[in-house]
Structure formats: C-alpha cells, structure tokens
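Lecture 7 notes. Example A: sequence first, then its structure tokens.
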Amino acid sequence: MDRILECVPNFSEGRNPRIIQQITDAIAAVDGVSLLDIDPGAATNRTVVTFAGSPEAVIEGAVVAGRMATELIDMSKHEGEHPRFGGMDVCPLVPISGVTMEETAEYARKLGRRLAEEVGLSIYLYEHAASRPERRNLAVVRAGEYEALPDRLKDPEWTPDFGPTEFQPRTGATAVSARNFLIAYNVNLNTTSSRRANAVAFDVREKGRIKREGDGLTGQIVKDDSGETVWIPGKLKAVKGIGWYIEEYGVCQVSMNLTDTEVTPLHLAFDETSHSAESRGLRVTGSELVGLVPLQAMLDAGRYFLSKQSRSIGVSDAELIKIAVRSMGLDELAPFNPDKKIIEYVLRGGDGTGRLAGMSLRGFTEETASESPAPGGGSVSAAVGAFGAALGTMVANLSSHKRGWDTRWEEFSKVAEHGKALHEELVHLIDADTEAFDRIMAAWRLPQGTDAEEATQAEALQAATRHAIEVPLRVMKVACDSMEIAKQMADFGMEASASDAGVGALCARMAIRGAGLNVRINGADLTDKKQLAIYLAQAEAFEQQAKVAEEQILAIVAQKIS
C-alpha cells in the first residue's frame, strides 16, 4: 500500500488570485505532490488548499507553501469573516493510506520544526501532534485570533512549540497538526441575519451556547460553583460551528467543521441543521463542501436519504452520490463535480473504472474484435458475468419498489446491495484479466542474456502465470455467488421479472465456463503441477456448482412464466 499523507493548509488570502496562484504553483512544483483542490473565499478572505503525496514530499510542499505565504501575505492588513491568526493560518496533516496517526503526528512535529527553522514562523502544535493536552483544541490555540497574539506571546503558558516567541506582525502564528479527515461544510439559510445563523450554529455544534438566566437570551451568564461559565451542549458531537453572512452569496450560512464523521456524518449534520433552522422559522436552501470529501461520506449520505424514502440502497455509487447532492443541495452555489470534489476520485483520476470497463458497449465490442490479443475471452467472461449479476440486482431493486410490497423494501435492498458488490467486482475484473495478460507479456520482454537474467525472467513468468490463473478463478467465484442472487429473485422477486433473473443465471453460467477455459489454457504454462492441480480442482468445483444452480433457477423461472 502506498504511504500517502494529505495536507490542507489554510492561507489568510482569498481575494487576490495572483497571490493564491503563486502559493499553489510553488506547491505543485514539488516532486511527488499532487495538488488536489484550491478553494478561495472572498468574504472569509481565506483559501483552503489540499494536496497529497508521500510523507516526505508533502512536508516539503508545506514548507515551500509556508515560505511563499510569508513573502506574499501581510497579516497586519488582513480582514475576513473566518477566525485566523497567521498568514499560513493552519497546516494539518491527514493520514490517507499506509500511515498511522502516530506516524502522522511525528511528521507534523517535523514539519513544525522545519517551518520554524527554515521559514521563521511561530508554530503551535494541536490535535494529535499537541505538545500538551490544553493545546489539542484549535479554537483554544487560536483564541483571540491575530489581534490577541502580542499579549498572548508574553504569557509563558502560550510560548510557541517552535520558532520565534516574540510577535511577528507580518506572519502572525501558524498551527500545525495531525488530525483525522475533517470535512469543512457550510449549510445555507434563507436569512441575512448572522445572529439567527449563529443561533442555529449554537444549537448543533458540540460546544453549544453559554447558559443564561431567564429567557436564556439576555439574562446574566450562569456560573458554576468554581466560577466557570456554564455551557449548554449542542446536538452534534465532533462538530464545530459558527454562523456568518456571506456577501458574495447574499445569504447566511452555518459553517461547520466535522472533525469525526464516524461520530457525526455529513448527512446528520445537514438534517440536524435543517431541524434547528425550521424550529426558528428559517429554512435550509442548500449546502456546500469546502475542499474535498471522502467517497464514503457521500455514499453514506446517499444511502441515508434513500432509506428515509424506503427505497433500495443497492444502486450504483454514481446514483448514491447524485441522491446525496440533490438531498443536501450541494450544487446550489456551484456545480458539484464528483471527479473534483471526492478525494479518491481526484487521486486516481476518476471513479476508478478501468480503461476497458469505461468504454461504451460498442467501443468494448470493437476493441475485442480488433487485431489486439487483449481483451479476449477472459475479459468478455467477466463482462458477461457483470451483466448477470446486474440483472439479479435489477430485479431486487424493482421488487423493493413494487406497489403493495412496501414493507419488504429492506429485504430486497439487502439483496440489491450484495448484487451491486458482485457486479462491481466483475466490472473491475474485466480490466484485471487484460492486465494479467500484460504482465505475462512484460515478463517475456525481460533481458535474457545471463543465467541470472534468465532465472529472473523465469520467476517473473511463473508469478505472472499464477496471477493469470487466479484472476479468472476469481471471476468464477464471484459469478457463482451472483447465481444465488438470481435464484432468490427468481423465487421471491417480482414475477414479471422472473425471466430477467433467468437470463442473469445464464450469463453467470457462461462467465464461469468461459473463465474456466482461461484457467486451463493459462495453467499449461505453470511449472508447479501441484498448485495447478489445486487450481483445476477449484475450477471444476465452480463449474459443477454453477451447473446445478442454473438448472434450479431455470426450473423456477419456467414455472413462473408458464
């Protein structure tokens, strides 16, 4: 697994595109860094930049960015709606893959030290990188913002973790952290009153609002026995929020940071904000995501809103994303392009669909018919298997929506979810089969001049051959599993779609037999005959299982359609 960190620096400049471009161009020029997103805001006078790469490359990119921000941003002249205390205001590191949170915290400390020593910034560490418990919370670290820094830096309790301890008017201070993936999320309200927007924010954010006597609005602040202010917690854990007016849109927003989406997911933040707004005579008109969002957050939101409608959630990822966007109005202020807003899609250049699977049906057919040896029977077997699994999924989705079967929607939705997972894997295997063939060809092209080179090539050929057998075996296994979906839907699904379940079974059987041929022809080149015998026994078992299942399913279908 690749070791990937994400870095999301926030710069106190959102109005001068030339400054923003100079900073982001410097980041993009760092070898090994992928610039994922640039999100400037004029009202907040703040730009959120997202980039990712190997830990070493990301740290270098952050140092370069800090140096450019120091040269270009003068905090003594900064004004904006968002809390801030530095030109490079915050610079969190987020583990994406192959890196633990503990490792990320060490990288954050390394980054903080470099920003102090090489750029001259006053650095505070927060969240998982914090040097002491009272500095974990960013709001506490940044309390009083830039304007409070001159006095705060004189307090020994607030000496920076790295860098200058005296006030620097031009650069202010920078907060560096290791944290979980944070979703910056704004919910739009049909009001221009920032006071009312703040009231909604106080309702939902974890910190809540200060408790007051009397009507709770104008009375004296309530203190506890130790003289500390008493707070009334909000509805949502792991949520920070404020209300503000955005002049460029002419509306107020509840601006939230969702710091742990396993505790409070995106869709719950939207719904609770909507409930609070409605209780105060306001209405939510839409929302926006600042920066990138994990794919899982969007899929969970799509499933949540479909479930509220008692609709099957076993639909494509694209459909789930569309439902999420429409339900939360994520396209109200600007178009929502999944390829540019979902982090996994940005990193891999799309939704992960392979070259062959991404073709039109005509394009795939013509590519198969061409003089190229791949795609061949293996990819076609996977494609036909995907069609079979998709047909079973279709019957489940139709059955979940059948008039009079409203109480059974969850039953069919679970079947559809299983079917979706199967046909998605078979779609992936379309390209995997061709890639297996390419690996064999690459092994044949290795140098063969010396004994060592010939040994290396022979080893590579055997590894590629094993892979070229295991891919069609996986096609057989997944297609066999899909026959259970077809059987369930032939037996218990809509009778009008029984023939579709039957065709799904026929497709699965063809995929299994076709993939079995691939196993046998590729196995001829495997020198490990003991392993080959195991592969062939597995293939034979799948074929026998499919034969029995096909007969059972077609018997059920024949009874239904007669």
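Example B, a different protein, same format:
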Amino acid sequence: MQLKQEITETDVKEMGLKCGLEIHQQLEGRKLFSRTPTLLRDDEPDFIIKRFLRASAGESGEVDKAAAAEQKKQKYYVYQAYKDTTGLVELDEEPPAPPSKKAIEAALQVATLLDMHLIDQIRFMRKTVVNGSNTSGFQRTGLVAVNGLLETESGAVGVESLCLEEDSAKDVNKESDHTVYNLSRLGIPLIEIATGPHIYTPEQAKEVAEHLGMVLRSIDNVKRGLGTIRQDVNVSIATGVRVEIKGAQDLKLIPDLIKNEMLRQHNLLLIFEELKKREASVGTLDNVTDIIKKSESKVVQRGLEGDGVALAIALRGFKGLLGQQIQAGRRFGTELSDYAKVMGVKGLFHSDELPNYGITQEEKNLIIRKLNLGEQDAFILIIERKDIAVRAMEAVIDRLSDLTLRKEVRVARPDGGTSFMRPMPGAARMYPETDIDPILIDKSSIVTPKLLSERIEDLSKQLSLAPEVAKRLIRDGVDLISLSENYDEVKPSFIIDLLYSLPSVIKKNHDLDVDMQQFLEILLEKLQNQDITKESLEEIVVKLAQGKPIDWNTYKPLDIGDLEEEIRSMIKPIKDKPMGAIMGQVMGAYKGKIDGKELSALVLKIVKELN
C-alpha cells in the first residue's frame, strides 16, 4: 500500500475532481427578521440565557441525521445578549418580523448581475440546526433565484441557486458539555450563492470564488471586513463522495483545501482496502483505568481527575495504519480523533504513537495484554469523564463500523487541511416556515448596479489610476471623484497618499493605528482653504487619533516672503556646511509651518547667493 503525499495536476485529472462552491455574504442594515441592527459585538454581554435543544422530526416525519448527531452530544448552550442590540426574535421569544426589504433588494440585484432566473415568490423554509448556533433550533432560508451561468477561463460554471437566509450566532467558546455563543451575529441577512459541481481544478475554484466575491461587493449594502464573506467548498473524486468544507475564508487557501481533501479521500480508500484485506475488526469497550491510574503522564492524570476513566477498544488488523499520513500533518489516527472530539473529548491515543505523552512502553504492554492483542492488532485509548468518554468511543466505533467514505461536513483548518464537523444533512432538515408570508417579486423595480470590475475600470481611466489602487478605493467606499471635485486644490494622488501612506508612517513612527477615513474630510477642507500645511499632517493626525485638542492656528501656513531675511540670517553662519546639514537645520526650525517645496527652493537660492 503506497499512500500519496501530494496531489499533482495529473492527479487532479485522473481522480476526476468535481467541485462546487457556496458563498455566504453578510448584509448591512437591520437583521433579516427583526428590527435590531447588524452590529457585530464582542464586548461583555448585559445578560446570558441557557438553552437545551433537541432534534425533532421534519415535514417528512424523519429526524435529520445531522441534527440527531448533535443531540447525541448532550450539550447545553449559553447565549450572550445585549439590552440595546438583542431583540426578542434573536432570543426566540416572539415570531419573526417581515423580512428586510433592503436585504431582499440586495439579493435580487445580485441575482440579476448573475443573469439568474428569478422565481415569482420567495417562500421561507426552516432548516433544522441543533448545534446551538440558532436559539430556535432552525435557520430561516428562502430561495430567490436559480439557473445562472458564470464564464471562467477554464469553462462555464452553473450557478444553481441564490438564497436569502439568516446568519448563525457567533461561536465564542466550546467546552466538553456546552458551547457559548454571542447573539449579535444571529439574524444578520446572508446572501447564499451555490454553484453546480462544474469546477474541475483547484485553481478554477479560486477564480470562481474571486468572481462571485466581486459580484457581491458590487452592491452597496454588503458588509466588509474579515468574516463577512465565507466560502464553503464541496469536493468529490470519481471513487469518493461529496464532502462539504466549511469556513474557507482565505481565497488563497481554497486550492490547498481541495487538494488536501482529494488526498484524504484517496488515501483513506487505500487504507480501507488494506483493512478489508486484513479482515480487520473492531472490539468492544474495555475499561483499563486500573492499568494506567498510577501513570506519571500529566495528560493521563488530567483526564482521570474527578470521575475520569480510561477506555480502550481493540482494533484487530489495524497495526501500522493508524499512524499513516492521509493529508499534510494529519494521520488516520487524527481522522478518528476528530469524531471523538466532537463528542467533547480533547483527543485520543492510539497504539501506533505510543509510548509517548508520558505513557510508557510498560503501560502500553499491559493494555495490549488486557485486550489480548496479536502482532497485527492496535488499540485506541480515551481518558475522560465516563459519560463523555463512552460517547466519544462510540463515535469512533461507529465510524469504523463501515470501511467506506462518508458524506460529511468538515471544517477548514489554517494549514489547508480539514477536520470532521458533522454528518452531511439531508432533506429531512427542511420544512415550511409558517410565520412568514410569501414575498411577491416585483421584477420591474430591480435596479441593477454596475459590476465592481466595471467601476474599477471606469475609475482607473477617469483619474489615471492603477487598477489595484482603484480597486482598493472602491473596496473601502472612497468616492475619489467627488472628493477631487469638492477639494480641487488637493491632487487626487495626494488624497490617496493621505489615505494609505500616512497611516503606515504614523504606525512606524508612533506605533499608532489610524483610520484615516474618519478624519479625511476635515483635513481636506483645511488643506483646500490653506489653513494647514501638508508637512503638519502627521502631527495633526496623531493628535486627532489620540483625542487631543488641536489649536489649528499653530498649523496655519506662514508667508515665506515675510521670513526670507530671518531664514537668511539663520543660514549665514552655516553657509559652508554640507547642503544636507543646512537644509535639515532650516527645515527643523520651520517644520509644519511652511510648504516644504517652497522652503527647500528658498534655502537653495539663499545658499547660492551667499556663496
């Protein structure tokens, strides 16, 4: 058995990669179904509430398997809330309000930009969610448009659907028996765009994600900043299954996530094939607490605190396979550990990695004898509170009960790998929302904005800007054309320097982070009226950022003509020094009070006259 260590371009073609994307974009304004603002907060909450959630049957009469898996964790949920920005809808204490008109308009605009077919009515559905991220136990989502098409350099990609839905609560902290959520994010309107499985290379996936992000940022009321747009990546290979990867926030990471998932599926299939050849089997739970209760391992002793136990299972025919690397930095044992972790444990041990973590060879041998293991056998060990340890071990046993790939939801890791999150949900999770009336779509009222790419091109041509500069200005919401017209004494290039270069200088010289946009208009007005010099801007902005009072009169430009004799007197005693020294002394004396170019020209003139 020879596992792959990386995925090449040839592998991508031979493995038959199929990929689709789901893009989620937050909108500004009010929450989708309440009047509360879309203000994201992380300060101390005013109050908290505690809830238990359970899975219930949907319209089909079946309980969704993803919801059922969450209920098995037997967790409770703590919600952080605020008196002024958390409404009763977010607390699930009153029915939803009619959906935000601004959010609906935004969804219709994006659908039009993607040339999608708009449906006649938006009917919201309830999507069962039992991981605690929604206080109601479900997420409201409505289909807006279908059947779009996106052209890429690698071929056309179908855009299957565009939905409008409410965002989930923000995960603040996870413990073995509960999760803490912040409710400020819950209910923020989300536009969800789902492509078809028409992406066939990792690089094409990144291209599609970039293009869809550009389309979404073409409308006015999208939120901007880290975490406001999220990509989920669906990946399968010809011999594998569809896996959904959540939380791919960094576009540059998308190709790595896809390649690593291809690698994981390919290598797991090889391992499963080998296990079948060995006629491998999984044993039952065995308590081995007595064997290691006196272990000097700190990890073991922490796990045994209170009513902790050590549980083990025999894995017959597994020896040497648990330590096999299935993707960069992750082994088969790590894969199994993920299933245990979602049940509340911090991890597991397996025999291929022992002795380690303070567990000795002698202790390992005692466990081997207790489980009656042979030469080709292995074991897994979990040390935790008994009820949690049992749930975690049962999850591992369930995963090894069939040696096949499973459709599942995984979470993106910063290194480009993924870890198990939950089973793939099915149709049983959806049922109609009875508290919201259908929304009739008035197609004649849709105002289609210009694409961001077109606006960048227009701005670049109009002001002779580099495309990257124009892109940054538009991304940051800076209307440089209007600013240039309103403050025509200030060159557009200087406004750009003011926005993007000066903050870097201030950070370097004063270790201070500055948001220039909040001070931009007042500074431009002062420059327009010649009330301050350009040389005084650094000092002024530092004071503004620090909240210090400013005496604007101290920065009013002096008339250089009135100072010529004074400057001549200053230069006369040092006229034979190097020009740099002369210039430095004079500049230091008049810094921020006279235009730098004018002062430099006058110094050169006086030095020449004196010599």
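Note on Example B: The longest helix spans residues 254-277. The mean pLDDT is 90.
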